Amino acid sequence: MGRFEGKVGFVTGGGTGIGLACARAIVDGGGQVVLAGRRTNIIEASAAELGKAASFVQCDVASDESVGAAFATVKERYGALHLAVNAAGTGAVGGVLNSTQAEWNRVMETTLNGVFRTMQHKAKLLKASGGGSIVNISSIAGTHTHHWMTAYCVAKAGLNMLTRCAADDLGEHGIRVNAVAPGLVPTDLASGLAGNPETVDEYLRRMPVRRLGTTEDIANAVAFLLSEESAWITGVVLADDGGHHLRQGPDLLPQFRKFLPAEL
């Protein structure tokens, strides 16, 4: 019997990258999973790839209306929820002097506010289902500053504290809340970094385990935190980064300089 037999999971950002890998881990564990994302064509194709145990729902985590409609659909379709992964996020290049308010708001609305928005709905359905587990996808950027990734770093730092507060709030309802903080993993979101050999070398020099992560590396950690194998663990932000958290983040300024005004 699989570790997720008889369980229903919901994964935001589930169409690609880490979110899709997490959804696959739920299916491989015998569970059912709903993939949620903005781009219907992508999440529909990913759900089809995972087979009959997977379905999809369009969901923009930056929209109250969209999130509410998505969870109404899930409740009608399955009647319960036991596992939840928040993998939707976005970033922007910019520091304090050159970030626009619009860029800042966009990152916060998806990467931090979007998690809170969906977590409220997930927690209500988890509570009604007798409890369960939520795992948020954070980042090493939530604990290590990175040049010209100010909004993203702040959003992920906020997500770490949200994880701890939610664990404290929801524990009495049988709901555990944890986070996984990946290092550099080649995904669509990180393609600008992972696709640059000089940047990759900078990361590897700061990693005791000298390789980039894979989406499966992250999904394995998430699956553990979702499962009953971690039944006494809550409020933890688990670094899954090849040991990168032990060392300072790389200097990304040379790569980002081309995007910035000459005087900065």
Question: What would a concise description of this structure say?
Answer:
The protein is an alpha/beta fold and 264 residues long.
Structural notes for this entry:
With 264 residues, the protein is of the alpha/beta class. The chain has one domain (8-259): 3-Layer(aba) Sandwich (Rossmann fold). Helix content is 44%, strand content 14%. The chain has helices at residues 17-28, 40-50, 64-78, 101-128, 150-170, 191-194, 197-205, 215-226, 253-256, and strands at 8-12, 32-37, 54-58, 83-86, 132-137, 175-182, 237-240. A seven-stranded parallel beta sheet has the order 3-2-1-4-5-6-7, sandwiched between helices. Helix 1 links the parallel strand 1 (8-12) and strand 2 (32-37). Helix 3 packs parallel to helix 4 (101-128) and helix 4 (101-128) packs parallel to helix 5.
Jot down its keywords:
Rossmann fold, alpha/beta, 264 residues, globular, 7 strands, seven-stranded parallel sheet
List the helices and strands and how they pair.
Blueprint: E1 8-12, H1 17-28, E2 32-37, H2 40-50, E3 54-58, H3 64-78, E4 83-86, H4 101-128, E5 132-137, H5 150-170, E6 175-182, H6 191-194, H7 197-205, H8 215-226, E7 237-240, H9 253-256
Parallel strand pairs: 1-2, 1-4, 2-3, 4-5, 5-6, 6-7
